[in-house]
Each structure stands twice: as C-alpha cells, then as structure tokens.
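lol forgot to send this yesterday, sorry. struct tokens for the thing we talked abt
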C-alpha cells in the first residue's frame, strides 16, 4: 500500500464517508456556480442600459426596460440566496467531515498502535508516535476543513468560465485561457518539489516532539544533574533543524504566488486591450466585454490562492502518508482462537474475601509449562535459551538470578508481549499462542518493578484492575496491599490526584497502589516482579503477610532480588544467562552450596563460601 498516493489511501480508508464527500463536493461546485453568476448579471445589466429594447433579455420577450431590471433583481436575489445557502452547506459538511474523519482516524490509529508488539514501541520514541496521532491527523483535518473545497472551486471556476468564454466570445477567449496551462504546469512542478520537503518537515517535527516528551518526562533527572543549559542546547539543535526544514519548504511555497501573478497579469492585460479594441470596432458587444473583464478576474485571481492551497495539500499528504503507514504496519503477535473457559461459580482464593473482591472470570487451574523455550531480542543473542521449567497450579514459585539473566523477559513471554522463537509455553496444557490473547492477559495479574500509574485519583488507579468493581472492592484491595492507611491520609483520600505517572507519591506508595490494582483484578495467575523493591522493611513485612493470604490456592510467580521475600516459595528457580542452573526449595538450595547459597550469604551477612 505504501507505493499508492496518500490521497488514494485516504479515500480507501474513508469509504464509509463517500456519500458525505460527494454531497460536500456537490455543494462546493454549486456554490461556485452561483458565485460566478453575478458578473454575468452585471454584463446583462450593462447590455440592458446600452441596448435597451434590443438587449439579450428582450430576445426572451421582455422588451420593457423596467421589467428587464425587475427580472434582473429577482435573478440577483435568487443567485445570492442560493450562493449563501450552498456556502453554509459546504462549510458545514466539509468541517463536520473533517471532524469525523480525524476522530475515526485517531481512534483507529491508536487502536492499531495498541495491538502492535512491544518491540515496535521500543524501537520508536513516544514523542514521534504522539506527533502522528496528534499533529499529523490535525494537519489532515485542516486540509479537509478548507483545502478540499478550495481545490474543487478552482477547478469548477476554470471549467465554467473557460466554457463560457468560448461560447460568448471565441475570438478573445484564447487570451484568457492562455495562462491556465502555465499555471497548472507550475502548480504541479511546485507540488513535486514541495512533497519531499514537507515529508522532511514532518520528520523533523516528530524528532522535536520526541525531545520535548523525553525531557518533560525526565525533568527531575535534568534538575538533579543541573543539565538545564545542556538540554536547552539539544532542544535548540532539534528546533533549528525543524526551522531550517520549514525554511527550505517556504522558499518554494512563497515564490509560487508572485510568479503566478505575473502570468495572470499577461492574460488579463491581453484581454483588457484586445477585447476593448474588438468592442470599439463593434465586433464585441459592450455587455459581453463587461462580463469578460469581470470574469477574467474571477477566473485568474483565485489561482493565486492555489499556491497556499497546494502548500496545505502537501503538508496534509505528508501527514497522511505517515498516518497510513502506521495503520498499515502489520501486527506481529496475533490472538489465538481458543477462549478460556468461563467460571460458572465465583472463585475466591480464600472464603473471607469471597464477597469483598470481584470474582475471577475463568475456571483454569493455572498450570504453566515452559518446554525448551528460546528467545532473543536481537538475532544471535538469546536472552532465554533452551529453558524448560514447570509451574504447578496453585503454587508459589520464585525466580531469582543476577541482572540480565532473563527473569523479567519470562514475564513478557508469558503475557505474549513477545513471542518465543522456539519451544512452547502452555497454560493448562494449551499452547498460549492458541489462546485468545485478551483472555490470556485477563487471567494474569502483573505487578511490575517499573510501576506505572495514570494521571487521575488513587481510586481510579486501583479500579483500573477491574473498572466495574465497587468502592468496597477497591478499599478491600487497598487494605490487603497495605495502601489503605496512607491513602486515607492524602488530602482528598481516595479522590486525591496522584499526578502523571504517580509523581505525587513516593516509590513505595506507588508500588502499593500497583499491588492493590493487581489484587482487585483477582486473577488466577499472579506475577510479582520485584513487587516490594521500593518499600521499607516494615511495609515489606506487612505486604508479605498480605501476599501470603493472596497467593493461597493461586498460581504465583515471584521474581525477586531480595531472597528473604521468596524463601517460603514452594519452589525456587535460579537463572543465569537465560538458562536454568538450580532449582529446589530454600533449604535444598542452601545445601547445594551453589549460586543461590552464595547470594543468600551475601544478603544475610554471612561470610562467602570459598
């Protein structure tokens, strides 16, 4: 699809709006038709004044001069009324069409973006994607608001006036039409030259947005390292590149109108002089000459706006190209077709919370098997290699290992944020690639080490785990996560705005909100990726007591650096360089005198084994 013109791709996308597009186009054409009528009426009026009973209207049986002017007055009223009515109609239709298309396009682009694999986002900046979803779509909206109507009306003007000239004055019509081919050739030539320059403009604004988004997100780091001046210099470089890219486009777009005006001047002057001489010689009627003089302006002067319209058109096409490329990006991770079996009876891991948390929607055991799994972010550099491990249903297993050993990657593979290159991962005996993706992810609750909170209230962030849950459900989840007490002490309690990414809260508070969010989801499988890494020892102990209850009869995967948090796990897997090197319970691993035993001695303060 990328080799097709952006306008064709846009037309294919907006097929459901074709009737509206044709109606808006028809109103634009009719408006221009009635807009061109007044100069004709002026010519007829001049003809009545000069010819009187021999005028054009007299040939239609209206010989009385007064009646002729009454007819002209009525026609003028009709023409102006129709022109106003169709102007209102096309303005409303085009603008509503622009709003509808940009609304649908933004939603479709964002929806498609959400379905793309995690690798796509890791290879691109947030600011660049924001530029597509916001700036590029807004650029297209501006063109549909005004530019589409302008192009249609220019074409209508050329066709109607050109035809009229050859009908009423073929001897001088060629002079009026002579500049048209030059203007059109110049317009297409400028368009061809402008297209790559505006594509570069959109690319530069994307980079600029990336820089701004990145800096605003890292404002604390900038302040702490006192790099404000350094960041201003970097922003200046990006902004200068954007300015220079725009200047390259402006050099051409600004030259268009003056050049077109010179060409128009030649045609207008030729018609004015030659047509006047023909009229004096009696070979051209005075009324016809008056009409020609008025109409030549209506024909040629609007063409001076063609440069601005083409400028807007090229910007819109560059933006459309970027948006359509996003929509055409293939989805690498596809959903399976097998749904998870819905739970006929509400499930609660422990009866005391049966009525306090929303029920689990799926009747699954939660048994996970990884069989000879290999995965690499980059070809030839496997992060997980030939890994096999068993996670029994309803049990708590822990995964430990040094940084970069592949622990967090396993979580992403279980959620199918990435797909494995070889091997298989099964849930209750079914390959997770065959399961419906939404069902798989709903069945897993994930508390990430890198906690993300949305700009909103504390309650809204907890309810994100189950949007239809009640306030009582949310408070129960907060109490289990040891978050209720600190939330109550916030200025507005559960209605306190936590700020973008939860910046108004401490790291430990953010982590407890994230745990509450996962608890409220009440999934059959719970993944804790360093879930207590940002809390103090007292809070950690309280959360551990809560998690001991939450993890009962629920498949739990705990990834941790602090071995004290997972010593009671049913089974502990030790990973190094993407491979499983040790496994067993806490006591078994200590007796093996291997990697786990050494890590335990380091963290517990005992002397290292020699």
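and heres what i got for the seq, position by position
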């Amino acid at each position: 699809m990328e080799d097709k013109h952006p306008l064709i791709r846009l037309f294919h996308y907006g097929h459901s709006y074709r009737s509206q597009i044709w109606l808006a186009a028809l109103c634009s054409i009719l408006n221009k038709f009635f807009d061109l009528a007044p100069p004709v009426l002026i010519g007829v009026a001049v003809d009545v004044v000069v010819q009187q009973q021999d005028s054009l209207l007299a040939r239609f049986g209206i010989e009385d001069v007064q009646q002729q002017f009454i007819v002209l007055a009525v026609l003028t009223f009709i023409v102006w009324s129709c022109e106003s009515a169709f102007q209102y109609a096309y303005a409303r239709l085009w603008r509503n069409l622009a709003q509808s298309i940009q609304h649908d396009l933004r939603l479709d682009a964002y929806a498609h973006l959400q379905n793309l694999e995690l690798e796509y986002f890791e290879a691109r900046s947030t600011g660049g994607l924001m530029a597509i979803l916001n700036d590029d779509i807004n650029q297209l909206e501006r063109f549909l608001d005004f530019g589409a109507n302008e192009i249609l009306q220019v074409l209508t003007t050329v066709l109607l006036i050109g035809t009229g000239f050859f009908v009423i004055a073929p001897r001088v019509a060629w002079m009026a039409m002579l500049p048209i081919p030059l203007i059109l050739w110049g317009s297409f030539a400028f368009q061809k030259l402008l297209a790559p320059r505006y594509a570069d403009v959109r690319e530069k604004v994307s980079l600029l947005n990336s820089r701004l988004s990145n800096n605003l997100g890292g404002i604390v780091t900038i302040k702490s390292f006192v790099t404000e001046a350094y960041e201003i210099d970097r922003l200046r470089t990006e902004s200068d590149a954007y300015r220079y890219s725009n200047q390259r486009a402006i050099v051409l777009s600004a030259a268009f109108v003056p050049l077109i005006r010179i060409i128009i001047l030649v045609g207008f002057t030729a018609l004015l002089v030659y047509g006047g001489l023909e009229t004096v010689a009696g070979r051209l009627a005075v009324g016809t000459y008056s009409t020609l003089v008025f109409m030549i302006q209506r024909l040629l002067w609007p063409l001076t706006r063609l440069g601005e319209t083409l400028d807007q058109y090229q910007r819109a096409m560059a933006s459309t190209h970027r948006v359509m490329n996003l929509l055409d990006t293939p989805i690498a991770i596809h959903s399976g077709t097998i749904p998870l079996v819905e739970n006929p009876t509400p499930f609660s891991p422990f009866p005391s919370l049966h009525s306090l948390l929303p029920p689990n929607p799926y009747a699954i055991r939660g048994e996970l098997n990884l069989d000879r799994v290999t995965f690499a972010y980059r070809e030839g550099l496997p992060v997980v290699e030939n890994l096999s491990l068993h996670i029994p249903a309803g049990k708590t297993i822990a995964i430990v290992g040094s940084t970069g050993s592949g622990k967090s990657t396993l979580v992403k593979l279980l959620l199918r944020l990435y797909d494995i290159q070889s091997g298989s991962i099964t849930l209750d005996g079914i390959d997770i690639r065959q399961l419906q993706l939404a069902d798989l992810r709903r069945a897993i609750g994930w508390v990430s080490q890198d906690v993300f909170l949305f700009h909103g209230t504390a309650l809204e962030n907890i309810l994100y785990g189950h949007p239809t849950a009640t306030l009582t459900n949310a408070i129960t989840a907060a109490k289990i996560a040891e978050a209720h007490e600190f939330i109550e002490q916030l200025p507005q309690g559960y209605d306190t705005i936590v700020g973008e990414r939860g910046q108004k809260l401490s790291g430990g508070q953010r982590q407890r909100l994230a745990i509450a969010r996962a608890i409220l989801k009440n999934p059959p499988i719970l993944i804790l990726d360093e879930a207590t890494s940002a809390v103090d020892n007292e809070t950690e102990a309280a959360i551990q007591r809560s998690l001991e209850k939450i993890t009962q009869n629920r498949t739990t995967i705990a990834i941790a650096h602090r071995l004290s948090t997972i010593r009671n796990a049913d089974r502990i897997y030790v990973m190094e360089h993407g491979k499983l090197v040790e496994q067993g319970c806490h006591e078994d691993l200590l007796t093996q005198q291997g990697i786990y035993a050494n890590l335990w001695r380091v963290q517990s303060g005992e002397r290292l084994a020699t």
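The longest strand covers residues 368-378. anyway ping me if u want another try
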